[in-house]
Amino acid sequence: MMVPSIDGGAVDALDEERLDWRFKAVPASAHGATVGEYRRARPPLSDFGTPLLTLDAGALEHNVRLMAAWTGDAGVRLAPHGKTTMAPALWRRQLDAGAWGITVANLPQLRVARAFGVARVQVANALLDPAGLAWLAGELDGDPDFRFVSWVDSARSVELMDEALRAARAQRPVEVCVELGGPHGRTGVRDDREALAVADAVRKAPTLRLAGTAGYEGALAHDASADGRASVDAYLRRLAELHRRADFEVDDPIVTAGGSSFFDQVVDVLGGLGGELVLRSGAYIIHDDGFYRGISPFSRGTASAQGDGAGGAGGGRFRAGMHGWGRVISRPEPGLALLDTGKRDLPFDEGLPEPQLVRGAGPGPVAGARVTALNDQHTFLEGAEVAVGDVVRLGLSHPCTALDKWTLIPVVDDAGAERPVVVDLIRTWF
């Protein structure tokens, strides 16, 4: 019998949560209703106050289908990084579209995944906390269908994991990948010979099993320049060589890499190694109007999909699936407007929001305008022909620092419509 990839009943049960003051996106008129009741009522977006973050239903569906089509064509696995959304309802969409599993970054995120019954989880990090490893041992011993993989990048991390798992009397060995790093990158063994020594230490640890190799190329290049892409290729070739030389303890060893910027190169370099190539791209489901719009392989024309996910508006590119909304609350100087949304509500680390349209009036009033700064609760908008009370839609950059500011996010039928309608509410756990 096929094991469910996620507990659909637990996800469906989110519809029963009562709406109240805990959810800053929800209007007071909705308090007391359940999520399901309010979703089925299809309220207009104009019922919602500002500041606000929304997701776009059509973009989410398109992006999931496009990535599923591309990975299917490429013959590789996808374990999207769940930290982008921390939304089990969105994880279910990705898993239902064929994702191999879900990637998370740390123990709290892993516990969310397990609370919703995700059957295959990768922690893209070293998990060394003794209490966390004791809990993990219980999860593995209590659920034979649960597959877990994490990373190590030193003999000391192997030693600490083994000690903690022995103390917890773990019955099932924990699968780990040796992580290879690069100069000035994040974690990961810097020296290739040392990486093989770490692999040998894993094989000698009775509570661990050497399951593959891992790395993150996105830490080595922040743009798609020729130099950046060359750095990525050089690193991936090192990872490929490590994978060829390692002596694994599983039949189908994993090699895992691939954020949302260079997944095409990952497949080009690592796709012929055998075993399972597992991409971890996570931002694609939301995409953006900033960093990823510029660097995505689909935007750059270095990747394309032949499946049905490439059809329709937007073609073979991801679509921006998130928008900010702010109301003009002040016009204190000529040419300057202040919106009631800021750093507490919207991402700003990979570029400032861009004004796109005034709700009900289209893009004309903000044509040529720009956001110059964000304070905690204010956006500085210059050059816009807007009046106090107007609601401005903002394009955003970097979904990983957008959704973490919201516990419940409205999904609209079409963010470009004159009168968008809310068709869903997405719960997050950060």
TrEMBL record:
Belongs to the DSD1 family. Residues 321-413 form the D-serine dehydratase-like domain. It comes from the Bacteria. The keyword ATP-binding does not apply. This is Alanine racemase. The lineage of its organism: Bacteria, Bacillati, Actinomycetota, Actinomycetes, Streptosporangiales. GO terms for molecular function: alanine racemase activity. It holds the Pfam family D-ser_dehydrat. Its EC number is 5.1.1.1. Keywords: Isomerase, Lyase. The keyword Hydrolase does not apply.
